[in-house]
Amino acid sequence: MQTVNPPGREQALAYRFAEILSREGIESDVITTPNPNGGKPRAAVWGRLRGQGDRPGLALLSHLDTVPADPSDWSVPPFSGRIAGGYVWGRGALDAKGVAVTHLMTLIELASSNQRLERDLLFIATPDEETGGRNGAGWIVANHPEILEGIGYLLTEGGGIQAAAPDETTHAPIWGVALTEKTPCWLELRAHGRGGHSSAPTGEDAVPRLVAALDKIRRAESPVRVLPEVEQMFAALAPIAPEWDRAAYLNLSGTLERDEGFRRRFLDNPGQNALVRNTISITYLEGGPATNVAPSIARAQLDARLLPGRTCAQFAAAIESLIDDSTIEIEEILSFASRASSADTPLFRAIEAVAVRQDPRGLVVPRLIGGFTDAHWFRETGIVAYGFVPRTLSAEEAEGVHGANERIAVETLTKGIALQIELVRAFDAIEAAEHRKQAEPVE
Q: pTM here?
């Protein structure tokens, strides 16, 4: 089902999920959500499996929309859902319809079990995540808080199980759990200048002004800052780091400051660099409509990702000061504050317990991620929200997210469902045991 955002058109898929939940006897409903651009309606869907106790409920969150897919880049039609070669192929197989199906099947399997949970289990799939979630998860949180009644925890995309490389026999599987995210700061720059024929250029033309500003932005380098969450993350990775870097991982901030060789090695990795710096990507340019036309306005858009602790407004002001050109306007397109969830919870300990059961070498690593998910909307209400889907992907498979030939192995999908069920049950058991221990009288 095509739910490319924009425009989204997620309502038909929401009803499809609701129909399946209803058929299985699970309480569910579809909620129409706003579509500020008009056109076909958008919607979210939820289903609630009632528990027998009063422990804080667990939500399993996914999203219904996908990014676009150009069929000419694919070896199969991108919306075919084809099953071939042991894979399910199609846009959304990983991000995030495969996640939604994993959550859906978890509810269905647990509903058919004779062993009821101590808590409610909530399935929720929303629209609009790929463009920021303001008209999806954000709108649901603000306008339908009753859906989240009694929910204390949430799992969504943003983390998973990283498989060891084929030639690495001693590499532990890494269970990455996202506790927080960088703050997105999407900005539009508009340069104003003289419009008209391009045969007689002047220093006041819009496009050269914009190019000069972008060159300053491109050359700027933000300072290194190591957050406690990132320090914790690399300390957890130290046992599997190259031997010569293990001590550095245990004291990341100090080593980055003192050891120039390690600093260069660490920052040369784009993924690692993005965890300790604010980053800017120039992603969109618009100039004249023809080669011989000098436009009066030229536009560019920036995708900046900020470490927690700095607002988009502060960053935009710094960009304005850097480019130092009063003819260029800067407008904020998208931003939201970053929030973090604690790792000291029974849900995190349940992930650790399941990881060890699967492989005693399994390493559970708390993470900050450079991308963003809908988790922050729920963290802002006080819900403990982790980015974690229990599926094992190789580095090559993970590259399919937003890429051509997105696919997920059938074995990975089915094992992920089994692990999700095991994780829900482990969370139930661990929190119940901790609750009983706290209630025991002190001798």
A: 0.90
